[in-house]
Design a protein that fits this description.
alpha/beta, 2 domains, 8-stranded mixed β-sheet, two-stranded antiparallel sheet, about 15% strand, disordered N terminus, disordered C terminus
């Protein structure tokens, strides 16, 4: 997705008018700039650290700091209250550092004045690092260095989603593009064949090729045969990668392909509902994730009908923000019917000269919608508990194995012990009860569809409302 295109295609509305009070936000962010996937180990660069820190600083200046234009009602402006913020990220060498960098911008060191305490004996203790604030980042999936994988299936071990994504590679659209772009990709051989073999230089590897060249264009002082990389060529590389990845993440006639967006939608709803039902408790939720989650959600929420740029891959440090606000008096906490939701997207690093833009969800025309309408709209595709995930995915083994099946299996093998393969109990209930679901996932099968790449398996810990998802593209 081109970083400036989205921002110029719609009138930029005021994020919050004087009559409004912001009650809470859910921020979903992509990681910052990184090294290429095809040259592991993949790590966050200094530029990437700067990008997410800059975005975190903007969100602080907009939602947190005293006097900010949309300061969240009751938020601690300087010293963080850990009860007010929930942050999470996959345990990954790019995503986790990005989350930490963002949080450093959101709540920076408090300085020598606030970061000290006086002991009973009169000793003044100064906090190290100028009062650096430690904000815990919960792990939403396990497995380090997932960025080292050139292509990751966004459907986790959801059987039906994997089948759906695989179907793209046998579709007429894919076959036509693969054939029509053979010459284009072959012409790039002198640029990339030292890293990507000639037999893999095709549309099948559209994202990997784009990613390698994109990183080189940002960081490399010299690039082999760089004269081949004209502006038109770079635009075509990005457009083909956008097409390739969006079609793996979403299909209008087969919504299960967008399982990553469906589970993300449930997480957003559960987090915001916790703020609404808790009368302002836990008003800030921040999650870092993969670009496939963006694309899947874009499709499910009909954002691609609002603006065609939503078909593209979001740039590094892109953010989606779901803002709860009210036009009523904020105290006592407003009733649900007096609360509204507004969706913002920003492509790339957020800064003072490049702020998020509001877009209508679910094919509507208004940029904001009543809370109850938001709940209804997002529940049409959100998947937020294990039974619903198992049913949608068509899975019947692992965490989806029924107790009766597990019992039968133990009996047939002559085992006298209870089965360990039954369904894990959700730690809490559903969205309306505002609780967090926790599920232990089994071995996650990631089908590698790009020719020449191996099958990769990673164990994933699914925590804090992630039901059966996700090993995703980043």
């Amino acid at each position: 997705m081109h970083p400036q295109t989205v921002l110029t295609l719609a009138l930029l509305p005021s994020l919050s008018t004087a009559a409004e009070t912001v009650l809470g936000v859910y921020i979903f962010s992509r990681h910052g700039d990184r090294t290429a996937k095809s040259t592991p180990p993949t790590i966050l660069t200094d530029l990437g650290y700067s990008e997410v820190f800059s975005s975190g600083t903007w969100f602080r200046n907009h939602y947190i700091a005293n006097g900010s234009p949309a300061q969240i009602h009751g938020i601690a402006p300087d010293i963080v209250k850990l009860s007010q913020i929930t942050a999470s990220s996959p345990l990954d060498s790019v995503l986790m550092p990005s989350a930490l960098g963002f949080l450093q911008g959101l709540y920076p060191p408090v300085g020598s004045t606030l970061a000290q305490e006086t002991l009973r004996n009169g000793t003044v203790v100064q906090a190290p690092l100028n009062g650096y604030q430690f904000i815990p980042v919960g792990v939403v999936s396990s497995g380090t260095l997932s960025e080292d994988t050139a292509w990751l299936q966004g459907s986790g071990n959801c059987a039906n989603a994997i089948i759906s994504s695989n179907n793209y590679f046998i579709s007429p659209e894919y076959k036509t593009l693969d054939q029509s772009t053979r010459g284009f990709y072959t012409s790039l051989g002198p640029v990339i064949n030292a890293t990507i073999p000639a037999d893999q230089t095709s549309f099948k590897n559209a994202f990997t090729i784009f990613d390698l060249i994109n990183v080189a264009e940002i960081h490399n002082a010299t690039i082999p045969s760089s004269d081949l990389l004209t502006n038109d060529t770079l635009t075509q590389l990005r457009t083909l990668a956008d097409t390739h990845e969006f079609n793996l993440a979403y299909n209008a006639s087969d919504p299960i392909r967008a399982i990553a967006g469906a589970t993300l939608a449930a997480e957003v709803l559960q987090a915001l509902n916790k703020t609404v039902a808790g009368a302002g408790k836990a008003p800030v939720t921040i999650q870092f994730g993969f670009y496939a989650q963006f694309q899947a959600f874009f499709g499910l929420a009909d954002l691609t009908q609002t603006n065609p740029d939503f078909f593209g891959i979001p740039d590094y440090a892109s953010t989606m923000t779901f803002e709860l606000f009210t036009n009523a008096a904020p105290s006592p906490f407003p009733k649900p019917e007096d609360i509204n939701v507004r969706f913002f997207f920003h492509n790339g690093t957020t800064g003072n000269n490049s702020a998020p833009v509001a877009y209508p969800l679910f094919g509507r025309t208004d940029n904001s919608l009543p809370w109850n309408d938001f709940v209804t709209g997002i529940n049409k595709f959100a998947i937020g508990n294990q039974p619903a995930w198992c049913e949608a995915c068509g899975n019947s083994t692992g965490v989806c194995a029924s107790p009766s099946t597990s019992s039968s299996r133990s009996t047939s093998t002559g085992s006298g012990s209870s089965s360990s393969g039954g369904v894990s109990k959700a730690v809490a209930g559903v969205i309306g009860a505002m609780v967090t679901l926790a599920v232990i996932l089994g071995v996650e099968a990631i089908v590698m569809l790009i020719a020449g790449l191996r099958l990769v398996k990673k164990n994933r810990l699914n925590a804090a409302m992630r039901q059966g998802s996700d090993t995703l593209k980043a």
